[in-house]
Fold Response regulator.
Amino acid sequence: MESKYVFLLIEDSDIDKLVIKQLLKKVLEVTHVNAVNNGKEGIEWIVDNRKRYTQSLVILLDIQMPIMTGFEFLIEYDKLSDDLRHETQIFVLSSSLVREEIKRIKRNRYVTDFLSKPIAIKEFVDVLYPTLKGEIG
């Protein structure tokens, strides 16, 4: 059975990538996670791959990255055509606990929710599972 979601992890830390992929696979039973190293690669992945998938796209986006930050990604994402942005949910990952940055993240119209790093399993499930209605695979 084909998954209802395609996952794209935009994260520069190899350790965080490993942890998040394992959480997706072990806790939410996600079978495949696409991963890139920064916002620029994330935009390129969407442009190159989005039309190949009919499923909804779930993006897990780090904020602090070299080359193109998560905030810069969101600006570039806004410039993409509607057919590339359709049925997409973006979950922002950040170790920043600066109140203004969190407010800025949550105000963005494309951001579904925010997860703080390091990611706790309970928060991960509480945020992702209800939003994706338990239809992950």
In short: The chain is about 40% helix and 20% strand.
